[in-house]
Amino acid sequence: MKPEFNHCYTPDPGHRFHSRLGKLGFTLDPKTVEHPGKHSCRFIMLTSRDRRLRLYLEFVSAPPRDSKRPGVSFSVKGSLETYFKALRGDRLLRPHFKHRNYEWKTRGTKDHLPGWNFLSFKRQAPFAQVWFTEYEDYPGRAKLQKSRRRLMRHANGALGIVALEFDADPAGRRYLEAALRRKLAPVTRLACGTDLILTPARRTAFRRVVVKVRSLAAFRRRAKSATTAEHRGRPALLIKNPAGFWDLAAV
Question: pTM for this structure?
Answer without folding.
Answer: 0.91
